[in-house]
Fold this protein.
Amino acid sequence: MGIETRFAVKHREHLKEPEMYRVVLLNDDYTTMDFVVTILELVFHKPTAEAEAIMLDVHKNGRGVAGLYTEDVARTKAAQVHALAVQKQFPLVCVVEPDK
């Protein structure tokens, strides 16, 4: 009494993972460490301890990875960082790089 339904699968799409991009904060001599931590907490949603560790990477190594995202998200976060830095008159720069 049941209705039998058959589905023919003719073409199966293979989806690939999107390419990922790093958002990297670069060190400068003017942006305060506190501001970098605030950026990491607000824009990248890092807990304070992780934000401080990333900030120290930036300070000691000249750069620190804030996060790994799809390209659109990475570029949006970089734009948010730049906007906040300009608002507070800091020269903080972050770049978006493909994750190798």
